[in-house]
Amino acid sequence: xxxxxxxxxxxxxxxxxxxxxxxxxxxxxxxxxxxxxxxxxxxxxxxxxxxxxxxxxxxxxxxxxxxxxxxxxxxxxxxxxxxxxxxxxxxxxxxxxxxxxxxxxxxxxxxxxxxxxxxxxxxxxxxxxxxxxxxxxxxxxxxxxxxxxxxxxxxxxxxxxxxxxxxxxxxxxxxxxxxxxxxxxxxxxxxxxxxxxxxxxxxxxxxxxxxxxxxxxxxxxxxxxxxxxx
Length: 230
Fold this sequence. Notes:
two-stranded antiparallel sheet, ribonucleoprotein, Ribosomal_eL28, structural constituent of ribosome, Enolase-like, domain 1, ribosomal protein
């Protein structure tokens, strides 16, 4: 196969090979991918194909120490699969690895048309290794609920304070009730008394009781806290 032109190989394998993956149905809407390791974009195209090109580039994670493997194909050993690839393992920072990829792919005129694809592949692999190294962060649901409850209570307290400031000097013949769904929660304002004459601690306790009702209702309807209906 080493003496067969790459374009001829591509015409033979482009529609039928073991690495081919077709997505999104048929016709113009379909997308074809290829899973060979030396395909930088994993696209089923002649430019990126690792089956029909004599010069290919492989960039992938390797080993348990989160290293990156850079491999290129030797053009003079196409009939020796065991020694076909020139491999180098990179354990440096991203800028130095990017410089090494540029030198290997573009600066020595190996495959300058794959320079951008190789750097994009290296960037994606590097980001994935950072996530693997740091681990998946588990969400503390209890902490989220507590912080959300505190924000709702704070909002209710502020809204309640504004309402009290606006109602000062007015008299009430009955208790003040809130709109649904919190109509069962009341502010205990005794008939004939003004707000400025009421016990501030008792009033704060009533506002806190209303805030707890807001939190309980939010848990019932969605299980998470959205905007309060204060």
